[in-house]
Amino acid sequence: MLRTRFAPSPTGYMHIGNLRTALYAFLIARKDKGVFILRIEDTDQARNVPEAVQAIYKSLALAGITYDEGPDKDGGFGPYVQSQRLPIYAEYAKQLIDEGAAYYCFCQKEDKAVSEEEPEKTITRRDPCRNLTPQEVQRHFIKNPKPVIRQRIPETGSTTFSDHVYGSITITHDSLDDQVLLKSDGYPTYNFANVVDDHLMGITHVVRGQEYLSSTPKYNLLYQAFGWDIPEYVHLPHIIKENGEKFSKRLGDPSFEDLIVMGYLPQAIVNYVALLGWSPGDDREFFTLDTLTDAFSMDRINKSSAAFSYDKLKWLNGEHIRALPFETFHSLALPYYPETLQPLDLRKVSKLIQLRIEQLTAIPEVVHFLAELPDFDPQLFDNPKTKSSLDSSLKVLKEALPILEKLAEWDNANLFESLKAYASQSNQKVGTVMWPIRTALSGLPSTPGGATELADLLGKDESLMRLRKGLSMLEKPLS
Questions:
Q1: Contact 36/30 with Cβ under 8 angstroms?
Q2: Single pTM value for the model
């Protein structure tokens, strides 16, 4: 059975690259009716953040990415937290020592801790401790009973492996470091723990960033030393900014949860992240998690770096907002409405803006005019597109106000029919009539809704007050 895993380090919030890795590993498993595993790689104790584990659970839940096995879902391959597996790593490190594939290093030089999120920058090194005789090792133990254990990389030759995205790759052994496998405190490095855990947990497909391509031969040498089957590799291209720089949380770029706070829907972010390095082979761009599962294929993952575009994300977010059931959108919109909007029917406000909003955080600015008419230049009444001028707008407001004042049923349908009839009777286009009314009601060049929708929402008294104010503005410069 196909088995994939997502193995984050609890060092912070879910960044976009991490989310994409989790998503692709999830989709690969779901596509093949396989198993998707969550494993917490917390071996770098100095960088672990206590609340980060909960942030991982929360982010996966928000994204809709469900795992079949994990710290709270034992599938028989646990523990699924690396700090709870120390005796396992010690056992397998000793096995490598016995087989000559690793050695004790007493130089007290420990490689910088790494994780799948932050691969190391390797420096070619053959530590002199690799040449110690068994007797010399015993003597060193007296002075330093807690050495590190390093992998013994062959000094010559090369390792070739195949990747689903990048094809066949060959790395010469003289470019590889004798990496630390087990640190002096008994904790494994990521480079060792991920190999042991992937094997013991039956991982068949390893999904991770392309920065691990150069390190993969070290992992394969470990698999070979143990006599284990090597999993299939799916390395993912970099995510970059539109200016070509690397997209990175450490450089101030937003995490998954940051984007949600910025007003993007989780499902829209997931949709967009899926397209950063993968395409369905046609012109589709809008996906739910279910349709992504149906469409996804690791054979269509691209090699080239993917540029993160806020404009594209915003557009997709708007598409997902419009696809929401109204009640869902209304509940999401409510926290963004200013308190000054409370006298209005907020359900009507939500119906007005749902088809016109691309970002939840834009709601306050979009609806602010409903609470208070902004100051605006009378020249706004002049609009060549609707053949509206200051003179024609003055005429419309003068003649339409009495009609609206007498209107008994104040709702969108009656308002529209009354103004449409007035346009016909006065030999004017409907747009020419509606423009000055919408302008007087909103004070804006564009609004989420037409003139009669706004009048319906604002109510008769507020609407007539704004229309009279608009009329007064037009009378002054023309008097």
A1: yes
A2: 0.90
pLDDT value of residue 110: 55
Give the residue among 387, 411, 428, 394 at the shortest CA–CA distance from 463. Answer: 411
The 10s digit of each residue's pLDDT in 342-359 is 899 999 999 999 999 999
Sequential DSSP letters for 399-420: HHHHHHHT-SS-SHHHHHHHHH
Report pLDDT digits (tens) over 306-315. Answer: 999 999 999 9
145: number of Cβ within 10 Å: 9
348 noted as active-site residue: no
Find out whether 452 and 419 touch, Cβ atoms under 8 Å: yes
Tell me: the pLDDT tens digits for 418-432? 999 999 999 999 999
- What is the distance, to the nearest Å, from the Cα of residue 205 to the centroid of all Cα atoms in its chain? 23
pLDDT value at 111 more than 70? no
Instruction: Provide the CA 261 distance to its chain's centre, in angstroms.
Output: 12
Q: What is the DSSP string of 317-353?
A: HHHHHHHS-HHHHHHHHGGGS-GGGTTS-HHHHHHHH
Measured CA to CA, the distance from residue 4 to residue 459 in angstroms comes to 57
Active-site residue, selected from the candidate residues 241, 249, 303, 351: 249
Whole-number Cα distances in Å, 134 to 91, 122, 149: 19, 28, 14
